[in-house]
Amino acid sequence: MRLSILGCAVASVFIVATGAQAADGKAVYDKDCAGCHKMMAPKTGDKAAWAPLIKTGVDAMTANVIKGKGMMPARGGHADLSDADTKAAVEYMVDQSK
Asked: How confident is the model over 2-40, as pLDDT tens digits?
């Protein structure tokens, strides 16, 4: 019984710690993406411009950001962005552009 309680406690701490480290899409967007996506296409919030991108799915969009596409350099020019931060920012922009 004691082992089960300890196991649950350890799992709970891990889940809380992992959640605390989850990427904040808005914060990443504000810091690393807004400079371009407020002025250049696709502008965040432009439903018509984002619609065909959204149809490709978040994973495909995130992959394009990670490797770069068109005028956008890899990771939007922020090489220090993790994959999780990049995906969180993409998800935030998608949510703002639906």
From this structure: 444 444 444 444 443 444 456 899 999 999 999 999 999
**Residue found by looking up tokens 């300890």 in the block:** 6
Determine the structural domain holding residue 40 and report its residue range: 24-96
Residue 20 CB burial class (10 angstroms; 0-12, 13-18, ≥19): exposed
The CATH number covering residue 64 comes to: 1.10.760.10
Encoded tokens for 69:
């596409």
Note the pTM of the prediction, 2 decimals. 0.77
In 3D, which of 14, 30, 43 has the Cα closest to residue 89?
30
Helix residue ranges, H only, the chain: 2-20, 25-28, 34-37, 47-56, 58-67, 83-96
Q: Is the peptide bond before 73 cis (omega within 30 degrees of 0)?
A: no
In the prediction, which pLDDT does 23 show? Answer: 81
Structural domain includes residue 66? yes
